[in-house]
Amino acid sequence: MEQSILDLIKKGESETLEFKETLKLDNEIGKTISAFSNTRGGIILIGVSDSGEIIGVTIGKNTIEELANYIKRNTDTKVYPSIKVEEAENKKIIFIEIQENKEKPVFFKNHAYKRVGKTSPEMSSSEIRKLAKESGEKVYWDSKICSEASLEDIDEEKVRWFLRKAKYERNFDVELETPVKEALERLKLIKNGKLTNAAILLFGKNPQKFFLQAETRCARFKGTEPLEFIDMKVFGEDIINQRDNAIEFVKEHIKLHAKIVGTEREETWEYPIEAIREGITNAICHRSYDVLSNVQIRIFDDRIEIWNPGTLPEGLTIEKLKGKHESILRNPLIGKCFFLIRFVEQWGTGTNRIIRETIAHGLPDPVFEDTKTSFILTFRKYLISDDLLMELNERQKKAVEYLIKHEKITNTRYQEINKISKQTATRELKELVDKKIFVKHGETGKGTYYTLFERAHKGLTKGSQESILINKKR
Asked: Tens-of-pLDDT digits for all 474 residues of the chain?
């Protein structure tokens, strides 16, 4: 993280970045928070001089809590920024990230400020009235005008590729040689004669020139914690290429199993690629681009995590994602373009497909988490150590494989698949329960059945031993 902070400081103050030497400049900090909230959001680094010299700040026991309360107490609409303590050159820096507020204007001590270049001047009464009126209308980030961009920033070949793909996939009614400007207008990617943010993200020659946060960061970590990575790549360019590159990165770092079925060779990825593809596409399509962080793909020994900046859209919950739900687009223009090239379906079925594909692949249900700053999708393995696997007989291994594909197994079914007596089945099932591989439901009788320990407890098997996929080992 230190290198990221140093890189940020090297860029110098800008419309979305401000330095403050000390916490004593609390009023100046408050004005900047109001300005960022009313404009495009931004970052304040406290402990850095205007020239970019790292001075550092003293952090007391309650410093961060008091700063958060000061901001909340003196802003209206209330602002709840992300506040962290980072370290650079062995000095502590306070990192404050402010998102553009949906409810504007945001006042600080009864005054509203805006961001103009590197300054935060006070807004006039007419500007406040105009901003309040505009704030009352639903304006999506991807449909906002990218004021600094022009058609020269658009890659014509990317537009041509898109038109060919859209015509093939969805029979999009547009001539392939349509002029770029007209094609973008047909896609509603030009507004009042100006390019939208979505146009730059989809077809820009260098989208990161305008949006540093519009990157996808991928890493293969050593072990099960994000401490040391084996490989790491950051993908920029347009978001269509980012999506494809991220999927290829995952393929490079997961196993491809092969087996002979009859006379045919069958290859199976360690994780369900279609579900991975859906998860990455959703993260890039539905992320909050006004949050100054990246989509992240984290690959560990026992799981893959896909981090999507921003919380779930209003009206959606984790439970809704697992059942029938409507399609709520955070970025409608991006979503529409992804639909035209068949990256998404716009029926609210993406998460259902992820769950279905994952279970069909013989893995635990994927985990969805909403941390209120990120949405995280986790694909997990069923894991067991080599030592524990060696303790199982072939009948027990067969029962484990059966349970990976089915929700439960009974004593009778155990007898049937292994052609053994009830007494032997009862003894071997008890051994699987004692080893915490199976969980028994019910005491005795016909209603008794068994499930995999991990599926019953929705947890991960962790240990210092190297683990393997039990349904792939023979």
From this structure: 566 788 889 889 999 999 999 999 999 999 999 999 999 899 999 999 999 999 999 998 899 999 999 999 999 888 988 999 999 899 999 999 999 988 889 999 989 999 998 999 999 988 888 888 777 656 788 998 998 899 999 999 999 999 999 999 999 988 888 999 999 999 999 988 899 999 999 999 999 999 999 999 999 999 889 999 999 999 999 999 999 999 999 999 998 877 666 677 778 898 999 999 999 999 999 999 988 899 999 999 889 999 999 888 877 888 888 887 777 888 999 999 999 999 998 677 889 999 999 988 878 889 999 988 899 999 988 666 556 777 899 999 889 888 877 779 999 999 999 999 999 999 999 999 998 888 899 877 778 999 887 644 443 333 322 233 333 333
CA distance 48 to 93: 7
Half-sphere exposure of 253 (CA within 13 A, CB side): 25
Domain range spanning residue 265?
A: 141-381
Write 255-261 long-range contacts (CB < 8 A, 24+): 257/472
> Roughly what angle, to the nearest 10 degrees, separates helices 239-252 and 273-286?
150
Residues 65, 112 within the same domain: yes
Instruction: Let me know whether 398 and 306 are in one domain.
Output: no
For 142, the token pair is 């991807």
Contacts with 279 (C-beta within 8 Å, 6 or more apart), sequence order:
306, 354, 366, 377, 379
Domain check: are 114 and 62 in the same one?
yes
End position of a domain, from candidates 90, 119, 137: 137
Same domain, 28 and 110: yes
Other beta carbons less than 10 A from residue 421's beta carbon = 10
Q: Tell me how far CA of residue 356 lies from CA of 322, 406, 470, in angstroms.
A: 10, 13, 20
CATH number at residue 23: 3.30.950.30
Q: Give the Cα-Cα-Cα angle 16, 18, 23 (nearest 5 degrees).
A: 140
Query: If we measure between CA atoms, which residue out of 441, 307, 464, 278 comes closest to residue 383?
Result: 464
**0.85 exceeded by pTM:** no
- Taking Cα atoms as reference points, which of 282, 306, 292, 310 lies closest to residue 219? 306
- Interstrand relation of 91-98 and 82-88 (parallel, antiparallel or unpaired): antiparallel
For residue 222, what is the domain's CATH number?
3.30.565.60
Compute φ and ψ for 467, nearest 5 degrees: -110, 160
How many Å apart are CA 308 and CA 287, to the nearest integer? 5
Count of structural domains within the chain: 3
- Which of 103, 137, 171 represents a domain boundary (last residue)? 137
